[in-house]
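Aim 2, interim progress: modelling of the magnesium ion-bound target.
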Amino acid sequence: MEDLFNGLWQALALILGGDSETWQITLLSLQVSGVALAFSTLIGIPLGALLGLRSFPGRRLVIALIYTGMGFPPVVIGLLVYLLLSRAGPLGFLGWLFTPSAMILAQTIISFPLVAGFTMAAVMSVDPALRTQVKALGANTMQTTFTILWEARTGVIISVIAGFGGIISEVGAVMLVGGNIQGSTRVLTTAIVLETRKGQFDLALALAFILLAIMFAINLLMLRLQGKLDR
Amino acid sequence: MSYQRRVAPVADELVLAPQPIYRVEGVTQRYHKRVVLHIPALEVQRGEILALVGPSGAGKSTLLRLLNFLEAPTTGYIHFQGYSVNGNGPVPLALRRQVTTVFQRPVLLSTTVLNNVAYGLQLRGTAHARRIAAATLEQVGLAHLMDKPARTLSGGEMQRVALARAMVIEPEVLLLDEPTANLDPANVQLIEQAITEIHRQRATTMVLVTHNIFQARRLAQRIALLMEGHIVEIADTQTFFEAPQDVRTALFTRGEMVY
Ligand SMILES: Nc1ncnc2c1ncn2[C@@H]1O[C@H](COP(=O)(O)OP(=O)(O)OP(=O)(O)O)[C@@H](O)[C@H]1O
Ligand SMILES: [Mg+2]
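Predicted structure of the complex, ligand included:
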């Protein structure tokens, strides 16, 4: 119990006191997961809309793959990305291994199936009669898709929250492909693992509180957005 | 073709081009190998209100979907404004945008009433869409609902908004699929007045599906009876009621048809 309070105090002290390493770790976490989420949203929402609204050969197969991706162990994705980026791997020439780019790539692969899967479910739950009505009012294919995404906006926002939750708290993949290098690839989750191993429970707890605060703040932000859009 | 036999004053024939707006030719529509619609020939005249009546499952809504180019016919052609539409290839957007449908169950977008009415204009990139929509709502006496979320309206209000949303885009053809089913008499009257008013002002061609033969009589110049996918009889309203050619029409108009 005392540890918990100490951790909370220390978290506040580190953040408000402007501890540069804590800030750097926090900002890198936000940066890596934020960029990965942006990519996943750009891929996942159109993909989810396509799967939910069109029929084409191979659709079922893609959906099965997306569902598998939604529950895929992040550490396995980390391993695959590691092999891809290692010096002997097909993308080794990029020199991305143990850089934030590698972490962004791994987290994008982890989160886009979540965004796509939840978006697909959201657009599929929109009344099919609405689609017919929108077409009858003269919407082209693109306009129809945007209108249905708008009608499904609550579910689409949830898909983005799920995508973010899946990566900001993820440790296995960033550890493998980032390497938890101080000052360059150390993020909140890998720092928590390290400090706990070292027996620095106060510091580990402090970092954990920062992580929770971020997740809470993001959810609040998304809920506000949802409230604004809900008219 | 049958427009040569059309009953119309001679002067009318000379002034108005006798070109029908729609010419349906050899159309069948099949779902899962079952033919639900078979229409060898049908013309819809420019500017008329044609009512479609007939028992449930006769294919009335299917015909409207074809006329709005929401589906392509399994076989045959729909000639419209000089174009021929069949099952091959998509219908040009510009063509589809000349027609719209008000469905039996109004489906409004989950936004304000004003945005719903502006929607069709915004799709077309029309300038001042919201201002035009507001004016239309004013005109049909719905201005007080403008800022309300559309999904909170009553059924009658929703259907009137759906009609306003269709009329604001000034379509060449307005298709109405049982627009007053399940509405109270007051709202039925308001909708019928709006239909009459649109027709008077813009001479919009309309095809009205209705279960209410009195409504067909009040609004339409011609009526077609559809049964099991076939047109049993099509005639001007007076003939349809007073001198029908087919015994089934007589039974139907007298409400004696058992189906
Ligand atoms: N998308 C579809 N797939 C399969 N069958 C369909 C489809 N749409 C309509 N049908 C069938 O086609 C027939 C005609 O249906 P339609 O909706 O056109 O009838 P209707 O005359 O409008 O009836 P109602 O008065 O009940 O609205 C029905 O037997 C219906 O079950
Ligand atoms: Mg119907």
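Residues 20-53 of chain A form the longest helix (34 residues). Chain A has one domain: 2-230.
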